[in-house]
Each structure stands twice: as structure tokens, then as C-alpha cells.
What does this fold into?
Amino acid sequence: MIDSLAMTTTTTTQPSDSAAAPTPTPVPVTDVPAVVDETARLLTEHYVFPDVAEQLAALLRRRLSEGAYDVPTAEELGALVTADLQSLNGDLHLRLAYHPEKVPQGRGEAALAKMRREFEASLGGVPRVQLLTGGTALLELAPALFPLEWSAEPLSAALTLVARADALILDLRGNRGGDPDTVAFVCSHLLDERTHLNTMYAREGDRYDQSWTQPHVPGPRFGGSKPLHVLTGPDTFSAAEELAYDLQQLGRAALVGEPTRGGAHPREGWTVHPNLEATIPVGRAINPVSGTNWEGTGVLPDVPCEAGEALDRSLALLHD
It folds into this structure.
């Protein structure tokens, strides 16, 4: 069991109303061919693997001609198209995502709007900072690694608090991804020297962009020598997987828990219907140590155990 000593954030749940919440009104989709054709066009123009994009675009158009997408609602169409998009290579970032609220226009705007709501509701992505028994600090980052221009302040405050701990447990079990710049910011507090973390290949411009830790951070570092564990699970995804993978490949952290979901391709989003967003991977990660990434396999823990038991297992290892 965890012996909680200090620095705990909590939330209070209000009693629910006796009346059940109203059932959302289904959102109609009146021009299925236009939605599917635009999704196929964006796929061939932007997907990081052009040959796969051509095959998937042909699949979508064939399925459209067969009547497979003759459904009345945007949610049903999104689910059917997503299943087909992921049928060839299992890319979990490749989706026709349904949003109950209207999707803002513009590249990437839908994801940002959703993340902003989550940011405001999660203490800036740092819902838990806690001092545990034996001088070990627990830092939970969830539900996302928000854009650094939003999250630098709450992250700096939390990382400054845990810098004085004897050991650190970084909990990413509920983190669904986010901003690679935020990954580098967190890693900058956990390493001593400026370090190459990742290289991202982008189809647009056929370019390679490197990600490095920052030479300076706004406060003390936890540093690169004290014990560090990272908790992972099946909900750990995308940029959160990169954070875990980077630290593991550098030999900086031990990963405890379950394998992660396996999404290593950064994606962009385009509005193709008032409630549908085509999310298309535009690049791929290349780790400088392994020369590869975690796409499809997930990040494998060093200490496998049930995700729900990972914190207790980590504490037992640190204090053994």
C-alpha cells in the first residue's frame, strides 16, 4: 500500500442529478460520397507512406461504390471508415474521428479545441504530485502532454517540486499523447546533459527534424542520476509513448507496467464534415539509439505487471 505523506491534489465529485442525462441527438451525414472522397484525397496527399495511402484510398472508394458507407449518421460513418483505414497496417493514428460537438475549421483545430478543454479540467495536465514513503515522489501526467505554450508553467511547478525527491515515479498510464516539444521539456528535467531524443521524418518537404533536450530549465533539475521509474499501460499512447521510449532507450528509466498502445506516427487533422475530422499521420519517429520506434508493438516494459499494480510494484522495487 502507498503511504501518502504530502503534496496531494484531489478532486471532489458532486452528487449526480436523479434524472438521466438526455441521449445525444444523432448527427446526420447527408453527403457521404463527398466526405469519403475528401478523406481519400487528403490521405493520398499527406499520409507518411504514399504507397499505403494509394491502396487505402482505392479501398475507401471501392467500399463507397459497394454501398458499405450507406449510413445515416456521422458517428456510424466515422467508425466504418476508421475500421477500413486501419485495416491495412493497423495505424491507430489514421482515423475518421467523430466529434459530438462541431469541429472547428482549419488544419489541426479540432484536436487543439479538444485538448484545450482537457487542459483546463486537469490542472494543466498535472493532476497529481505526491510525496510517497521513503522520499519517493509521484508525478502523474494526464490526460495529455499539452502544447508547451500552455503547459510550461504547470509542468515547471510540478517538476520543481519533485526535483528534491530521492527517487521519482512518472505515471503515464492515463496519458494519450500530445506535443513532442513537451516530451523534450520533461526529459530536460530528467537528464544532465543536452541529449538527442528523437528524429522525426516528415513527408512534407522530405525532411528530418531532430528533437533535443533543452540546455537550461526554469528551476532545479531532478537530474540524470537518481532512480526514475515510468509507469505504462494500454492507454499510454503517442507522445506519451515517446517520453517512455526515449527514457528507456537512453537507459535513464525503468518502465513498469503493461505494453503501450503502439502509435509512433505524428498526425494532423482536417475537417471533412461539421462533426468529422480526418486524422492522418504525416511523419514517423526514428529513435537515435534503436534506429526504429514503437509503432504497432507499443513500448515494452522492463518490469511487466498489470497496469493497476504498477505503482505498488515500482515502490517495492525502489525500496527493496
Remarks:
- The chain has eight helices and twelve strands.
- The radius of gyration is 21 Å.
